[in-house]
Amino acid sequence: MKKLSDCRVLLVDDTKSNLDILVEGLKADHKLSLALNGETAMQVAARTPPDLVLLDIVMPGIDGYEVCRRMRQMPETAEVPIMFLSSLEEVQSKTRGFEAGANDYLTKPFEMLEVKARVRSLLKAKAYSDAAKEQIASELRVAREIQMGMLPHDFAGMEQAYGVNIGAVLEPAREVGGDLYGVCAAGTERLVIFLGDVSGKGIAASMFMVRAISLAQLLAREIIEPERILARLNDELATDNPSGMFVTFLCAVFDSKSGRLALANAGHCRPVLLAAGEPARWAVRNLGTALGFEPGLEFERTELTLHRGDALIIYSDGVSEAFNSLEECYGNERLLTEAGGLAGQSASAITTSLLQNVRAFAGSAPQSDDIAILVLKIQQEKTEPEGAARSLELHATPAEVMRGVEALQQFAHARGLPEKMTFSLALAFEECASNIVNHALQRDAQKTFQVTFDLFDDAFIIELRDRGPAFDPTAGNSSRQLLDDDLPGGWGIHLVRRFMDEIHYERRAGENVLRLTKRLTEAETPSSSTGTEQ
Amino acid sequence: MPLQIQIQKGITGQETTVTINLAGSLDTATAPELERQLGPVLAGPVKDVIFDLSGLKFISSAGLRVFSSTRKILKERGGQASFIHLQPQIQEVFEIMKSLPGVALFKDVAELDSYLAARQRTHIQS
Description:
The complex is a heterodimer of chains A (534) and B (126). Helices cover 37% and strands 23% of the residues of chain A. By secondary structure, chain A is an alpha+beta fold. In chain A, strand 11 (272-274) and strand 12 form a beta hairpin. Chain B starts with a strand and ends with a helix. A four-stranded mixed beta sheet of chain B has the order 1-2-3-4, sandwiched between helices. In chain B, 44% of the residues lie in helices and 27% in strands. At the A-B interface, helix 12, helix 13 and helix 14 of A face helix 2 and helix 3 of B.
C-alpha cells in the first residue's frame, strides 16, 4: 500500500495566498502540485496524476465544479478523491459539489488541522481501495492463467493420430470469461471436439465455465454419442445450479476411420461446414436448448461425412454478434461469406483469418463478448492408420539402402500403388540413398541417415536426411557426383529427375534434407487400399 | 531382394559367347557380386556377353555401371554386350539412358535380334 508521504496532492486555487497557506500546511506530509486555474489543473492532473485534489470552486475560466466533472471523465483522475475548499457555504453549493463528483467539501476559512485530517482520511481510503483493486487484478491474472491452461493448445499429436488439422483461439472480453472449448482423444479412431459459451461474463461465468469444461472432458471420454454427452452434461449442470446460469454448447464426435461426424447442439451458434467445392453452409439445422436449465432434456443428433480437405468451424457468438462502432452486427450472412473464402486454408489459418476479420469489422468498438473459434479440418493425407508416414533410420551400408528400398516397396504395395509407380519410387530412393551412403557418410557403418515415406492424396513424398557435409545433389556441375565418378555426368540424378516430379534440397540444422516428390494422377491415387503390410 | 547370377559358357565352337542370366535386383548391394563373378569370365577369350534380364525386376545406376564397364572391355576386343528379355520397367531405364547425350551403352538393344542372328550365322559359317 502506498505511503501517505508518497501521495501527491494537487492544490487548485486562483488566490495565491490561499495556495501558500495550503502548501505551508501540507508540504511536510505529502508531495504537492499547484495550479492557479481550472485549465492548468487539468493539464497538471493529466501529466502527473495526483492521489487527491483540493479544489477551489470560484475561479476565472472553468470553475471548480466543471474541473471536477472533467476529472471524473478523464481515466487518470476518474477515481481520484476530490475535496472542494470553498467560501460558498450554502447547502445547494455543497450538494452541487457532491453531484459534480466530489468526495468531500470544506468551507473557508478552514482550520489547517482539519484540512490535514481530512486529507489523510481521503488518502487512506484511496490507498485501501487501490490495494483491494490490485489484489483483485492480480487474482484475476492468475485465474486467467488457470482458465487458459484448461484449454488445449498443442494439437500435433492428435492431428497425426486422427489425420486432422486443428486450430483454436479463445479471447475473453475481460480477464476471465465464460467461453470454452475442448479437443479430446476419446478412442483410437474417435476424436471429440466441443465449444461452449456460458451466460454472462466475468468471474461468475468463468467459474461455471470451469465446471462445464471439466465435466465435458470426462464425459467425452466416457460416452460415444454427442447427444448423450450433452444430455449427461445438462443433467450434471442443471442439478445444483443455484445461480441459474446456463451454457450453450456444441459437441462433435469425429470417427477418423469412416470420416463420419456426429454433432449435437445445445442452444449454440450453428457451426459452419466448409466442404470442398461447395459454398459454406450450416452444419446443423437446429439450435436446441442450452444446458443447465432443467435435467432430463434430450438433444438432436446430426450426422454428416467429412471428406479430405473439408473443415468444420465452431465459434461463439462473440464472432457472429460482434458489433462495430456504428452498432452494426457482424451477423450470420457475413460469417458464411467470409468463412467460404477461407476454404483452402489450414485450420489454424482459418482460425486466425476469421478472428482478424471480426476484429477488422469491430474496428475501434470495444470487444463486447468473449470470442472462441475452433476449426477441425480433415487432412489431405490418407486418414487410415496405415496411411501414416513411415520413418526409418538406416546405417550407411548398401545392404541398409536395400532394406530401405524393401520398406518403401512394402509401404507402396500396402497402399495399392501401381507396380510401375513403386518401381520409380524405389529407383529414385535407391539412387539418393546410395549417394548418401557412398559419399556423404563414406560407407561408415556406424553412421546413420533418416528416411521418411509419406503418401498424400496427390503425391508420394520421400525425404532423406543425413548429417554429412553440406551438398546439394540438384545443383549442376557439382564436385560431388550423385553417381559413381567413372560414369558420364551423374546417371543417378538423371534417373531420379526422370522418375520423380520434384527434387528439393535444403541444408537444415546441420542436415542435408532431400525431398523427392512423385505426383499422383487421379487414376494412380489409391482410393481404397486392399493390400496389407507383409 | 537378392540377385541370382547364372553364367552359361558358350557351346563348343562358340567359346567367345557367354550368356548371363540375371534375376532379382541389380542394385548398390548386389552389383559388386556381379562384378566379381564377371571378372573370371572377362579374363577368358570371350568377345560377346548376352545378358538375359528376363528375371531382373530392379536395376539402379550401380548395376548400369557394371554393364557399362563390361561393354567397354568387350568393345576393345571387337566384341559386344547385349541385353535381352527386358521387363518393361528395366526397358524404361534403358530408354532413359539411351536418351542421355554421350551414353552409347544401350543404343543397340533394339537391333539385338538381328545382330545376334548375324553373329550366329558367322559362327556357323566359320
